[in-house]
């Protein structure tokens, strides 16, 4: 391989690596956390999606080796009762933040394969419409959420 081509391929590899970590549109995941849950039940996932880029990006899929499946849910108050419904995607506007928290969007880890205790980590992969895939660890806490 010629030196110039080799250098170009290195640049390409570095760019691909940066894209894998931050996403082409620059979505970052802040303060991912979860609550203790017993094996076989559903666990919760909270975080903030911060889009540092200039283009909207859309969270389309979440996977975790610790859960049978992962759903995105939206909580809503209706007639004084809190309910939740699955959503297929969540948009992160450029320069903005989307909060996954109590009473708002959240992840549901359906059928966790082991009991999650305070101090554990729940690994997950977030896939975006831009092609970005972010690996995230949700910190299980029984106390106050991270700030
Ligand atoms: Cu839910």
- Assign the CATH class: Mainly Beta
Largest beta-sheet characterization: 10 strands, mixed
- Do you know the CATH topology? Immunoglobulin-like
Order of helices and strands: HEEEEEEEEEE
Compact summary:
With 147 residues, the chain is mostly beta strands.
Q: Could you explain the architecture of this structure?
A:
The protein has 147 residues and is mainly beta. It has one domain (3-140): PCu(A)C copper chaperone (Immunoglobulin-like, Sandwich), CATH 2.60.40.1890. 14% of the residues lie in helices and 50% in strands. The chain is built from one helix and ten strands, in the order αββββββββββ. It has one helix at residues 3-22, and strands at 27-34, 43-51, 57-63, 67-78, 81-87, 90-92, 97-100, 105-112, 121-128, 133-140. Strands 1, 2, 3, 4, 5, 6, 7, 8, 9 and 10 form a ten-stranded mixed β-sheet that branches. Strand 1 (27-34) and strand 2 form a beta hairpin. The longest helix has 20 residues, at 3-22. The protein is globular and about 40 Å long. The termini are far apart. The relative contact order is 0.26. The protein binds copper (II) ion. The site of copper (II) ion has 4 residues, from strand 8.
Task: Record the SSE blueprint.
Elements: H1 3-22, E1 27-34, E2 43-51, E3 57-63, E4 67-78, E5 81-87, E6 90-92, E7 97-100, E8 105-112, E9 121-128, E10 133-140
Parallel strand pairs: 1-10
Antiparallel strand pairs: 1-2, 2-7, 2-8, 3-6, 3-9, 4-5, 4-8, 9-10
The structure holds copper (II) ion.
Defining traits:
147 residues, mainly beta, Immunoglobulin-like, 10-stranded mixed β-sheet, 14% helix, globular, binds copper (II) ion
């Amino acid at each position: 391989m010629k030196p110039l081509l080799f250098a170009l391929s290195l640049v390409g590899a570095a760019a691909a690596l940066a894209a894998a970590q931050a996403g082409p549109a620059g979505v970052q995941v802040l303060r991912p956390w979860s609550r203790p849950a017993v094996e076989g039940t559903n666990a919760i996932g909270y975080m903030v999606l911060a889009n540092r880029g200039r283009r909207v990006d859309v969270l389309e899929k979440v996977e975790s080796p610790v859960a049978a499946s992962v759903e995105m849910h939206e909580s809503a108050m209706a007639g004084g009762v809190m309910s939740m419904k699955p959503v297929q995607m969540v948009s992160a506007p450029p320069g903005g933040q989307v909060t996954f928290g109590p009473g708002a969007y959240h992840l549901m880890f359906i059928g966790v394969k082991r009991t999650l205790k305070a101090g554990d980590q729940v690994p997950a992969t977030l896939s975006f419409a831009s092609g970005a895939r972010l690996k995230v660890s949700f910190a299980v806490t029984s106390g106050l959420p991270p700030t």
